[in-house]
Specification:
Number of strands: 10
Strand content: 15-25%
Number of domains: 1
Strand order of the largest sheet: 1-9-10-8-7-6-4-5-3-2
Oligomer: single chain
Shape: globular
CATH topology: Rossmann fold
């Protein structure tokens, strides 16, 4: 596992949003067939089971960069220099292996008082590194094809979706990201956005655009379009999907991640605390601690963690919920305590924490109300896709991808 020392870096970027997140919708009817669910306000309650909608054809996420040339080893920072680049995650020592659309990472040099520099690589990141842990599905013909899947989990038939890189290579172990939808969201809302609540405007929370054919995406469908997780039902579903994807595709089992917005973020928190041996890191957007059976007493093992949260979130208030979530993982990872500075309106702020245990960085971004969800009467800063002035796509996917691709 790569060694990591997190050093605090603060970036304030002026930003003006044209979008912001949905809040947890009120109890309502199931989404109509073929359409996206629409809802606002309120906490989820039990509802009648619904048939998950079929995921639509995935939107083209932009052409991945052509394979680059081998990058040179990252140079070591000067003694005592901050380890995180502007707006990015702290560097880690590079490892071998060439990623599609990117250059192979070179071995980082070490300087007294500094830390190993990352090897040069493009925004696509490296694919299977030299330290990859291959799953049972490697080095053989794939048995899991792209598209909607059904699996029996806990006696129930559950729907999920998988997408492998276009240039899938059965000998290469791929990074894999689980993506949980929000309350009354769906597979289709993540795979083929936008949804009616204007939560996302790029497929796979915008991360596919940056992954340069280096990542397998797994998108589960929640029962009643949410993640209540009674008696660990949805945690077991995650286990079963992971078994299926590692058997049917070539997965790097040391680089499996979980991410989600709102209710989906709560499900990712649950997995981060109860499955730290299976997930390398959790990346969450605007979530809280009172859903999906989350229990802080279960959080015992450090795990890398990234959070983005709107200051004007009307569903999971930034204070106390956003800061509570952050505090759980900074303490768990042994980071130096620090209260994140607050972003101004039309701006966002990100900070990487100092002193975290090796391999368990923590990064936090918050954004002001100028970057709220654009839906009329919407949930304010409860939003996974805030934008800076002049941006046509959100800054959050780039932050999330920098965090994920450091591993």
């Amino acid at each position: 596992m790569k060694s990591y020392v997190a050093l605090a870096t603060l970036v304030v970027v002026a930003g003006c949003a044209t979008n912001a997140g949905d809040d947890l919708p009120s109890t309502g009817g199931a989404p109509s067939a073929g359409g996206q669910p629409s809802s606002t306000g309120g906490m989820p309650t039990s509802g009648t089971g619904t048939t998950p909608m079929t995921a639509g054809t995935n939107a083209t996420a932009g052409s991945p960069a052509a394979g680059g040339t081998t990058g040179t080893a990252g140079s070591a920072p000067t003694a005592g220099a901050a380890g995180a680049s502007m707006g990015g995650s702290a560097p880690v020592a590079g490892s071998g292996g060439t990623g599609t659309g990117g250059a192979s990472a070179g071995a980082g040099g070490t300087a007294a008082g500094g830390q190993a520099g990352s090897g040069g690589m493009s925004s696509g990141g490296a694919g299977g590194g030299g330290n990859a842990v291959k799953s049972a599905g490697c080095d053989k013909a794939r048995t899991l094809m792209d598209g909607n899947q059904m699996i029996n989990s806990g006696g129930q038939n559950r729907q999920w979706y998988v997408k492998a890189p276009k240039g899938y290579d059965q000998t290469r172990a791929y990074r894999t990201i689980f993506m949980f939808h929000w309350n009354y969201g769906s597979i289709n809302a993540i795979v083929n956005p936008p949804d009616a609540d204007k939560n996302t405007d790029r497929p796979f929370y915008g991360i596919e655009d940056l992954s340069a054919d280096s990542t397998i995406f797994v998108v589960p469908q929640g029962l009643n379009n949410g993640w209540e997780n009674p008696n660990g039902r949805d945690s077991t579903f995650a286990d079963d999907m992971l078994k299926a994807v590692t058997a049917g595709l070539c997965v790097d089992t040391s680089r499996v991640f979980t991410t989600g917005f709102s209710y989906g973020g709560a499900m990712s928190l649950k997995l981060a605390c109860t499955r730290p041996d299976k997930f390398r890191a959790a990346v969450v957007y605007d979530t809280g601690t009172f859903l999906s059976g989350f229990n802080q007493s279960e959080c015992k093992t450090p795990i890398a963690f990234f959070e983005s949260h709107g200051l004007d979130d009307n569903t999971f208030k930034y204070d106390p919920e956003g800061l509570k979530v952050l505090g759980i993982f900074t303490k768990l990872n042994g980071c130096t305590a620090q209260t994140p500075p607050l972003a101004a309106d039309n701006a966002h702020t990100c900070i990487s924490y100092e002193g975290c245990s090796a391999g368990h960085p923590v990064r936090m971004c918050n954004f002001g109300k100028g970057e709220n969800n654009p839906k009329a009467g919407g949930p304010g800063g409860h939003y996974p896709s805030p934008k800076d002035p002049g941006q046509t796509t959100s800054w959050v996917p780039a932050e999330a991808w920098k965090f994920i691709s450091q591993f």
